[in-house]
Amino acid sequence: MKNWKHSTFAVLIAALATAALITACENPLDTPPVHVHQWGAWRTTTAATCTTAGEDTRICTLDSSHKETRDIAVNPDAHNWKAGDDRGLEPTCTENGIGTRVCVLCETAEAYGVISALGHDWKAGEDAYTLPTCTTVGYGSQVCTRCEETKPEGVIPALGHDYQDWTETTAPTCTTAGVDTGTCTRDVTHTDTRAVAIAPNAHDYQNWRQTTAPTCTTAGVETRVCSHNTAHKETRTGGAALGHDYQNWTQTTAPTCTTAGVETGVCSRDASHTETRAGAAELGHDYQWVTIAPSFIEEGTDKEICSHDPTHTKDTRNPVSALLITTTAEWTTALEQIDGKTGSYTLTISGDISIPGSLFDRSLDSLDGSFGTTAASSTLTVTLKGNGTLSLSSNGNMLRVDANQILIIDSEDLILQGLTNGNNGASQDNSTSVVCVNGGIFIMNSGKISGNTFDGLSFDGLFFGGGGGVYVNDGIFTMNGGEISGNTSFFGGGVNVNYGTFTMNGGEISGNTATSSGGGVKVNDGTFTMTGGEISGNTASGNNSSSGGGVNVNYGTFTMSGGEISSNSSPSGGGVFVNYGTFTMSGGEISGNTSTNGGGGVYVWMDGTFTMSGGEISGNTTSSGGGVSVSYYGTFTMSGGEISGNTATIAGGGVFVEGTTVSNTNIRTYFYKEGGTITDNVVKNSSGIEVDDRGHQVWAYAYNRVSNQEVRKRIETTVGPEVNLSFSGRDGTFSGDW
User: Fold this and answer.
1) CB–CB of 415/399 below 8 Å?
2) For residue 190, what pLDDT is reported?
3) DSSP of 547-587, one letter per residue?
4) Fewest CB atoms less than 10 Å from the CB: which of 325, 464, 649, 661?
5) Does 344 lie in the same domain as 452?
6) In terms of Cα–Cα distance, which of 310, 249, 312 is closest to 275?
7) Gap between the Cα atoms of 288 and 149, Å rounded
8) What are the φ and ψ backbone dihedral angles of 632, each rounded to 5 degrees?
9) CB-based burial label for 9 (10 Å; 0-12, 13-18, 19+)
10) How far lies 705's CA from each of 478, 660, 671, 714, 726, in Å?
11) Is the model's pLDDT at 251 over the cut of 80?
12) Mean pLDDT over each residue of the chain, to the nearest integer
């Protein structure tokens, strides 16, 4: 029986332990425990007080959510004290007192802390033999007010003043403070003062006085001044405005045909005040017939002119044509008559007339304009008609067109003859152009400008050698017809465009010579547009570096949509030479031109750009690039048009492209063909025999400095619109059907 009991107790203990372990770790009975607790140290989480138990907690180090707690017994000494309201022992004048404290939890009270002794509070005793006053001490016995202890004698402190009953004794003003006085309650003979703030509005204004008299239009002003401070003033309206008193009415504007006169009166009170009123009635017109003789710029007539105002006119009768200009003196008179005018006038030439030239005037720092000066807001238009020859008789421009002026030449039978040594009795060449367009507009519909030799004009070290026939300086030149021929200049034998605009719709520029560049036309930082007309038979031939027999474009823009550039010659670019400029061709013809150094038709050089979308380049001849030569940083793009029938004696009958060479490095020359046709061009030697393998149609060359190899590309047969080509003269890279 004893053994059974022991076995049963052992089994029960094991079961309880297993249950506790399973419960603590929250594992089901049919699964093994997650872990065996490893408890940390006990920590107090709620402290015990004098009335309540506390609590300790420990946490499983394997799982912080597993915790265990235990109680802490009540601590009878763990009070929460605060000062008590009662005192255990009150302090006296000479002895300390004792305070109390009370627990807020169990209300236990106990003596706690020391309260300092109060000390004596002495006052004069009844047997004092000298009482203190406001300002003097007393002498005699003193008694403590707390414990009534006495001391036989001593000094009793002075009582001090007790000022009451403050009253205003000096009133404040707008500039000074006031004064209040108080009397001591212990001794009425003792008084004290205190300041009263300034009263800004406490003025003492005196009598009103007029300070500004009334005028015609304004009332007067009265002012009064404060006696305390004269800077303090007050104003009010005084006498009413007097009104005007106009007298002495006189006529200040006489009556006219259409308006009445005006009289003006002056105010007797103020002469600067005036008023006007209608005066004499309008006169009405008084038309009289007046015969006006013709002049060189206006026709004559009988005209009804008002006798009151000659600007008022009515009818005309018996018109008489303007006078013909037949002599030098009449030409001079005509220019004098037109000087300073605006509007449109016609000068009619009859016969041959010598015209003195006009040159730069250093004293005025300007050129003498042919028609004077025209204001910016106005326009003067002068048309030259008639027949005959105007011949320069001395150095200078024959005609100069300034800003706000328009010159029109509109007569087939009118010739402007320049100055050339040995021609027409001249003993010297000219030093400028026949016509100078300086900010104005020149329109040439017909007529002829010829026979002028511009040998160059130098001002203070600057050389001007442009435009044998016409020089356009920041102006506009439009050529619809007529002829510019037989002129010579350093730049632009026929026309030089400098920062200006030249449009050629018709007419002819032929047989002119440039000793440097631009036999027909030189474009320097200007714009040239050619829609029609002919530039032919011109020459740029001063030396081997001369260029652009027909047209030379330097830093300018040339657009060609029509017309013809033919039979011109130059060492480089027989037809057109493009240097630092842009040439765009969409129509027209460049044909029959010749050169020796390259570019029979067109030479593109030194950052020049040529774009061809239409037109024809044919029948031109040179050494390299019978149609087009591109070298030294030039770019040629062809998207349309035709290059045909051109001849070269060295290479590139149609197109010649040269880039980097052995001696010249990094030459960025480019050729792009995106359309158009290159056909029937040929390379022939000096004996006229065709030379194969030299690019009858296209020849391109460059030296590749990376591979140290020459790159040569050529096409001998027709290059149709469908063939696209590209070639970089910089390194010889290429694409397309070479």
Assistant:
1) no
2) 92
3) B-SSEEEESSEEEESS-EEES-EEEE-SSEEEESSEEEESS
4) 661
5) yes
6) 249
7) 142
8) 50, 70
9) exposed
10) 49, 9, 19, 20, 19
11) yes
12) 89
HSE, CB side, 13 Å, CA atoms: give it for residue 250. 5
Q: How many domains does the chain have?
A: 4
Domain extent, residue 313, equals 288-294+301-318
By CB atoms closer than 10 A (0-12, 13-18, 19+), residue 104 is exposed
If asked whether residues 306 and 361 sit together in one domain, one would say no
* End position of a domain, from candidates 457, 483, 511: 511
Which run of H or of E encompasses 338?
helix 328-338
DSSP 241-299: P----EEEEEEEE---SSS--EEEEEESS-TT-EEEEE-SPP----EEEEEE---SSS-
Contacts of the segment 95-100: beta carbons below 8 A, 24+ positions apart: none
Sign of the torsion angle spanned by Cα atoms 15, 20, 23, 28 = negative
User: Taking CA 475 as the corner, what is the angle to CA 471 and CA 479, rounded to the nearest 5 degrees?
Assistant: 70
Give CA–CA dist 374/477, Å, rounded. 18
User: Sorting pLDDT into bands at 50, 70 and 90, what band is 10?
Assistant: very low
Asked if 550 and 538 touch (Cβ cutoff 8 Å), the reply is: yes
**Tens digit of each residue's pLDDT (9 = 90 or more) over 341-397:** 999 999 999 999 999 998 865 444 455 589 999 999 999 999 999 999 999 999 999
CA distances from 522 to 130, 436, 587 (A): 131, 15, 20
Q: In the structure encoding, which two tokens stand for residue 340, read together?
A: 């300073």
DSSP conformation class of 395: S
Residue 500, in any domain of the structure: yes
Checking if the pLDDT of 14 tops 60, the result is no
Q: Tell me the whole-structure pTM to 2 decimals.
A: 0.65
- Could you give the CA distance from residue 623 to residue 646 in angstroms, rounded to a whole number? 11
The mean-pLDDT minimum among 52-66, 360-374, 400-414 falls in 360-374
CA–CA gap between residue 210 and residue 224 (Å, rounded): 9
* Order of all β-strands in the sheet with 67-72: 43-46, 54-59, 67-72
- Which of 632, 651, 646 is closest to 699 using CA atoms? 651
CA distance 177 to 173: 6
Please calculate the CA angle 277-278-281 and round it to the nearest 5 degrees. Answer: 165
- Contact between residue 179 and residue 168 where contact means Cβ atoms under 8 Å apart: yes
Nearest to 156 by CA among 185, 177, 126: 126
Has residue 423 been placed in a domain?
yes
Q: What DSSP string describes 493-536?
A: SSEEEESSEEEESS-EEES-EEEEE-SSEEEESSEEEESS-EEE
Strands (E), 307-342: 313-320
Over residues 36-46, the pLDDT tens digits come to 999 888 888 88
Q: Quick one: 596 and 685 in the same domain?
A: yes
Same domain, 307 and 356: no
